[in-house]
Amino acid sequence: MPALQHPLALALSSKKDLMLDTGPRPFTVSVEGNVGSGKSTFLKHFKGLEGVNVIEEPLEKWCNVDGHNLLDKLYKDPKRWSFLFQSYIQLTRLQIHLDQTPCRVKIIERSLPNNRYCFVENALDSGAISAAEHTVLAEYYSLMERRLDIGVDLIVYLRTTPEVVFERMRQRGRAEEAAVPLDYLRRVHRSHERWLTGARPAHWPPVLCIDADQELKELLALYDKNKERITGGKV
Amino acid sequence: MPALQHPLALALSSKKDLMLDTGPRPFTVSVEGNVGSGKSTFLKHFKGLEGVNVIEEPLEKWCNVDGHNLLDKLYKDPKRWSFLFQSYIQLTRLQIHLDQTPCRVKIIERSLPNNRYCFVENALDSGAISAAEHTVLAEYYSLMERRLDIGVDLIVYLRTTPEVVFERMRQRGRAEEAAVPLDYLRRVHRSHERWLTGARPAHWPPVLCIDADQELKELLALYDKNKERITGGKV
């Protein structure tokens, strides 16, 4: 019996065609940067443009997995819960990459590669996850990258100085940011620098690096100036 | 600029085509059953047939994740390590489902759905994983099932009575099986019964149920009698 004549093989082959027939994904941009680097302001600036779908970090999901607050567990006992937390972040970011949109442009707050190359590495460095936990997360990522379309067309890197964002956060006095220590910001900064600056593999997406230490007014002008590049010439 | 003219979009579109162009997967059979139900004997019986690729459980991987023995961690402290263990089992089983083979038939020892519907459920029931950990595993499974071709064409269920396999294991006296309590076998049995017998969703693969309490001689005769069905008429 030839391979495709078997009724089950036929059924599965149509299922497969269905999976593949999702069409080209939109021009996908991820905005990356430290806590307090201005990602929300950036997203707000592009939100509402026709043809642009802006997707924020799914914080509410991380705080409510079937009634369980993973973020809370993480804060209380990082060594115990970081692997679960990183697994779930990886899954929810993957969902965002794969979610379809009728829009031509998709701008996402942070990305799956950001999680892999910054936060998972930091968790290992700080001892929050073990080497075995790191390997499992890295192998999942590698399989997803190979098998699913998690591609990004442009990374917008809001590059800041840790001391500047620390001072910025101190001044705006948001309750949820009050506990972020300067040392943590420095670690997050270093991991972004390692990931987004200097020599990078040829198949990684291009980076538009923006000096986000600047004042809001200057930044908004820069976003407008770079609008065509940021939206892939599609709006 | 139309969607596919962007050089990056073009590059990614070829990558996508490449992913999709993997051809139909082979006729895929999973052999399921309790510890001691005779899965290895079944696999050995079909191994070596032309066009058949037999894949055993990747036990050696589970015992050596970058030098770490996850199985050992699991035995020592199930509540602490079950989630990591189940995550890795899920990943390695997924890899086996997706691995390409030039063979027309692929027979695998247990499957990703088996892990999802038996072992992950058992881990929750016994308190080895928390509700939040269960949700994360289940959501990963659901995404994989939706996005990747993990289809199975036939499940061969080696159905046994827990007391029979317990006695069989006691008699053959393998060191690694000496510690398996009857209660555990009963739990594994119940979960297989729930998953493979009675009413099942229409899109789940058919089950060839074999009474594996029988003597080896009878079983081998049954396997031969069912050879065409088991190999999808392809050998």
Please tell me about this protein's structure:
The structure is a homodimer of 235-residue chains. By secondary structure, chain A is of the alpha/beta class. Chain A has one domain (26-230): Rossmann fold, CATH 3.40.50.300. Chain A is 53% helix and 11% strand. Chain A contains 11 helices and 5 strands, in the order H-E-H-E-H-H-H-E-H-H-E-H-H-E-H-H. Chain A has helices at residues 7-20, 39-46, 59-62, 70-76, 78-98, 112-125, 131-147, 162-172, 182-196, 216-225, 227-230; strands at 27-33, 52-55, 105-109, 154-159, 207-211. Chain A has a 5-stranded parallel β-sheet, with helices on both faces. In chain A, 35% of the residues are buried. Residues 1-21 of chain A have low confidence and may be disordered. Chains A and B meet through helix 1, helix 5 and helix 7 of A and helix 1, helix 5 and helix 7 of B.
